[in-house]
Amino acid sequence: MRQVGQPQRRRALSSRVARAAFRRGVPASTRFRLESYVAGNRSVVPEGARLTASRMLGRKPVLPYLETHVTDHCNLACGGCDHFSPLSPPRFASPPRFARDMHRLGQLFENIRTIKLLGGEPLLHPDVLTFARHAREAFPRASVVLLTNGLLVPKLSDDFWGAAMALRLELEMSVYPVAIEYERIERTAARHGVRMRTSRRQTFCRIPLHEAADNDERRAFRDCRKWMNCPVLRDGRVYPCPRIPYVELLERQFGIKVPVADDDSIDIRGAADGYEVARFVRRPVLWCRHCHPRRVESYPWAPSRRQPEEWGLEAREDGSWL
Ligand SMILES: C[S@@+](CC[C@H](N)C(=O)[O-])C[C@H]1O[C@@H](n2cnc3c(N)ncnc32)[C@H](O)[C@@H]1O
Ligand code: SF4
Ligand code: SF4
Description:
The chain is 35% helix and 16% strand. By secondary structure, it is α/β, with parallel strands linked by helices. It has two domains: 8-56, no CATH class; 62-311, TIM Barrel (Alpha-Beta Barrel), CATH 3.20.20. The structure holds S-adenosylmethionine (SAM) and iron/sulfur cluster (2 copies). One iron/sulfur cluster binds next to loops. S-adenosylmethionine binds at residues 74, 80-83, 118-119, 121, 147-149, 174, 199, 201, 204-205.
């Protein structure tokens, strides 16, 4: 029954959207794409138009992606880690705080397609599964993913694997040139019925960061979207990328001054609706002026020496940073 009903419902919805779009003077080509999207073809419509479609239907929006740190520190130190984890003291996120944030996001969004739990190294958190549970409770249809460097995976208990399977938690493992039996880990995940994928990370990239706010924020944001499209939740606020909430680690270690303002993130409690948050993460913030994605360099993965050059910082003679 459901299989027959579903396409019919979609077709009815798609004509409703087409009529609403026509009344609002939306051009024919955009109307066609909206209609086709609501009818089930997800590939034809860019994200902005998807938001327009769900607004017209009076629905809450869907956020494509959100990531959050479970810990800020790590048990591996990769040179130029773009979350600055080699510079972090041990810091664990709070499960009750995360539960409140997930609950609020559940009020704002119909769904978040992918919720990524990372860090730092998330498996260092003794309550890492509690984060997965809160994410799953708030978003039953989300893909909840734990991104790990794999070092602690061989030590995970059967209870962990059982709970991960029950929560439909997916594991993603970054594969570095370090001595880990990745294939054995993949077999273990498969044995426990947990979905696991691996991403090879033999090459890292460095986006220069200047103390002076000397780039155009729109240009910087447009340039970085090619590889950095990862809104981050930290303590009730959503930022367009991890550089902004965690740059304080770089400031503390090297004395660089790149102040972050309230307007560089959005408070999810204060947001009128999910559309405000969804719009926010699709636009540059003023802090992006410090960032130079067009001058990105790639380099082979290497352990961190915790030196400023790893993060694209160049000291000037007067003590400031280029
Ligand atoms: C910050 S790590 C956190 C999760 C976990 N510790 C790990 O390494 O998978 C998240 C992802 O960012 C990638 N990453 C971090 N710094 C990077 C850089 N400078 N260039 C490219 N990828 C980077 C990592 O390889 C990893 O896949
Ligand atoms: S990229 Fe490397 S240093 Fe950064 S969090 Fe992951 S494993 Fe740790
Ligand atoms: S600071 Fe802005 S421009 Fe730089 S990576 Fe983040 S979102 Fe992109």
